[in-house]
Design goal:
With about 190 residues, this protein is mostly helical. Helices cover about 70% and strands about 0% of the residues. The chain starts with 7 loop residues before the first helix and ends in a 10-residue tail after the last helix. The relative contact order is 0.11.
Length: about 190
């Protein structure tokens, strides 16, 4: 029943739009089918399951997010790159809550191997951290710290979790400053040359 002109890309984009409207957990195949005016079964020729749809949404949202971050960090390094990266991350998370929630799920591994967006995310993130001269495993630990800090802050902000009268933007700026200092003073796992 191709009357809706469905493609995988259209289905995933509509699911991402729906997630921003009703929340990531509110995206179901039934809700999406209603949006297109088709029966649920019509979607199964484009996505295998709800899990497959959600994985594809995560890849779409991740690609959108890293594209914005890449533009923000272009030509910057060190603290300036970190501030730009963090700002673009937060802006995307707050503007697209459903899509952002999709970026936090574990993606179906069959889709990961061929994902240019995931490779680009690693390249941009590690490139931004290059100025801090970290080696493994410190580099992975630093990436995890930044992700946890950015995600935690955005989740609390989106949920109205900051009730103190201090301006939320000022607190964000100070938190990013503190992350910069932490990265500069990173406790090395081992000395180089060992």
């Amino acid at each position: 029943m191709p009357r809706a002109g469905l493609t995988v890309e259209r289905v995933v984009a509509a699911a991402a739009d729906l997630a921003d409207e009703v929340g990531f957990d509110g995206v179901t195949l039934s809700a999406l089918a209603r949006r297109f005016g088709v029966k649920d079964a019509s979607l199964y020729s484009h996505v295998r399951s709800l899990r497959d749809l959600r994985s594809r949404m995560a890849l779409l949202a991740g690609a959108e997010m890293i594209d914005r971050i890449a533009v923000a960090v272009a030509g910057r390094s060190g603290k300036e790159a970190l501030v730009a990266f963090a700002g673009a991350y937060r802006e995307y998370a707050l503007a697209h809550p459903g899509r952002y929630a999709a970026t936090q799920i574990r993606v179906d591994q069959s889709l990961v191997a061929d994902s240019p967006a995931l490779r680009r995310t690693a390249e941009i993130t590690y490139g931004m951290l290059r100025a801090y001269d970290l080696d493994e495993p410190d580099l992975t630990d630093a990436v995890r710290l930044l992700r946890a800090a950015f995600h935690g802050y955005c989740a609390l902000e989106a949920g109205g979790g900051f009730g103190a009268p201090r301006d939320v933007q000022q607190s964000w700026d100070r938190a990013v400053d503190a992350l910069h200092v932490t990265l500069e003073q990173w406790p090395r796992t081992k000395e180089r040359g060992d």
